[in-house]
Write a structure and sequence with these properties.
Length: 519
């Protein structure tokens, strides 16, 4: 895989350094903050008490300057005459001084030569003002970042506040405008976009979006596969809540037990077991313990057994599932025969059914139409059902009813995941749907996706080992509501690795999301 030079230029606080740093880390490239190098020159001038007018002394200072730029996970570490000055060069005073000193041609000559030396091997992301125009006009990728001046001043102001430097916003704005003017107006290597640079306005973009935006432009240049993540993927609120409750419940006083697997993801269940959180199959087995009721909920009678056995109950039932219990109870009390659309063996449906009566029945989308008990009826759905199956059932039953009450109990997270998976599948040549093989909601995503394009339902990245991914220009990733973020990240990194790339992301927010191409 070729290792190119990436130039990112733009005015102060347009997002260059942050974007360059993340991009370099993602691509496994070196990062070079050229502004920090001019800042170091400015600091050296200050240390030696040199006046800007005293060109001869500044040139001598440059000849004798001992400057090193080292790589760290947090960006560049700037070492000036053996001392780490990375923090010291970030004050407003040094910002103005760096802008002024960088206009001196001899200073620039020295710095440009050093920057060319450091970047000559490729596999480097440099940010500055003249990278695409002067330092590396031959750079394979050139970006010019801009942002509204008020937005840039706001970013710089917050940065200074975080460092305990209390400069008024108006002053930050004023200095930024001055610096823009000086950097763009100087005679040598002024700030300006290279003719072949790609402009990116970061005013309204988050850091992840900025990085993704540049990354998307680089995919072609680096011959990376185009991989996109569905907009809604991974843990939903209910699953996150259940896992947090389980982890908080851990203590030494009583055993912590989940009745049934807390979520349908074998790797997470194993991780909890490693932390001492055990799974019990039957309510009757559990006594004097802390019991976590999983997000799918449990039948009414199991709850009664747990209480009778002196257990402390931690109810992690998903609020959407709880709502189905309440709705079902109310309908039964009002005399409605209720049809539950769902999988009769799924724990959520087993739990739900316990709140019904003898007239409550469960049907799946593949079953024949149920026989109605009279001409009034109500329909509820398992929270992870497909919406079109619910509307299909309602349409088919309607001719035989005087009164049909349909409750859309499908949870928002499920519909969001389903809709964004379908949208992505339509724009992909191959879909990888990630999540437990026993996870109903992941299976629903895989089934929706496979009706549109070739789809593999995988639990972990290990299942990619023997799959040929080479022939698919656009690969989509979707993940169920019980799929942890680390699995999405591992799958993405594995897809890139299989294409021969060294690129890697650390969190799912760094994976280009479907639709971000519009930036
Ligand atoms: O990117 P920065 O704010 O850290 O840069 C500080 C100053 O250094 C900037 O105002 C202009 C100068 N500079 C330059 O002239 N050329 C570069 N390639 C980088 C920075």
């Amino acid at each position: 895989m070729k290792r190119i030079i990436i130039a990112i230029d733009g005015p102060a606080a347009s997002g260059k350094s942050t974007t360059a740093k993340f991009l370099a880390s993602r691509l496994g490239y070196i990062y070079l903050d050229t502004g920090a190098m001019y800042r170091a020159c400015a600091l050296r001038c200050k240390q030696l008490g040199l006046k800007l007018e005293d060109k001869t002394k500044i040139i001598a200072m440059m000849d004798a300057m001992d400057l090193q730029v080292n790589q760290s996970s947090d960006g560049n570490i700037v070492i000036l005459h053996g001392t780490d000055v990375s923090a010291e060069i970030r004050t407003p005073e040094i910002s103005s001084l760096a802008s002024a000193i960088s206009a001196i041609p001899e200073v620039r000559d020295k710095m440009v030569a050093l920057q060319r030396k450091l970047g000559s091997e490729g596999g480097v992301v440099l940010d500055g003002r003249d990278i695409g125009t002067v330092v590396f006009p031959q750079a394979e990728a050139k970006f010019f970042l801009i942002a509204d001046v008020n937005e840039r001043a706001k970013r710089r102001y917050l940065e200074l506040q975080a460092k305990g430097l209390d400069t008024p916003f108006e002053k930050v704005l004023e200095e930024l405008i001055e610096r823009d003017k000086a950097d763009a107006g100087r005679a040598v290597a002024p700030l300006k976009p290279a003719v072949d640079s790609i402009p990116v306005d970061t005013s309204k973009l988050s850091i992840a979006q900025q990085v993704s935006c540049l990354f998307i432009h680089l995919e072609k240049l680096l011959s990376l596969p185009v991989v996109r993540l569905a907009q809604h993927s991974g843990y939903c609120f209910g699953v996150r809540r259940a896992l947090n409750l389980a982890l908080e419940a851990r203590n030494d006083e009583k055993p912590v037990i989940t009745l049934g697997e807390i979520i349908h993801n074998p790797q997470i269940v194993q991780k909890l077991a490693d932390k001492g959180i055990r799974v019990a199959k039957e309510a009757s087995e559990i006594k004097n313990s802390k019991v976590i009721i999983r997000s799918h909920g449990i039948p009414k009678w199991e709850l009664e057994t747990l209480i009778a056995n002196q257990n402390e109950i931690i109810d992690a039932t998903c609020p959407y599932v709880k709502r189905t219990h309440e709705t079902l109870q109310k309908l039964v009390a009002e005399g409605y025969p209720v049809i539950i659309l769902g999988d009769k063996d799924h724990p959520e449906v087993v739990g739900m059914l316990s709140y019904g009566d003898s007239k409550t029945q469960v049907v799946s989308s593949d079953d024949p139409l149920p026989i109605l008990e009279g001409r009034k009826t109500a329909i509820l759905a398992q929270t992870t059902q497909k919406l079109h199956n619910l509307s299909d059932l309602a349409c088919k039953l309607l001719p035989d009813c005087n009164e049909l009450r349909v409750f859309n109990t499908i949870c928002l997270a499920t519909s969001e995941r389903q809709n964004s998976t379908v949208e992505l599948a339509k724009a992909s040549d191959l879909m990888l749907v990630i999540g437990g093989h026993n996870s109903a909601n992941t299976r629903a995503l895989a089934s929706l996706s496979s009706a549109i394009c070739l789809t593999y339902h995988i639990e972990t990245e290990a299942e990619l080992e023997n799959l040929e991914l080479g022939g698919y220009p656009r690969i989509g990733l979707a993940a169920g509501a019980s799929t942890p973020e680390e699995m999405i990240v591992e799958v993405y990194n594995k897809v890139l690795q299989k294409s021969g790339s060294t690129a890697k992301v650390k969190c799912s927010g760094e994976i280009p999301m479907f639709k971000e191409e519009s930036c």
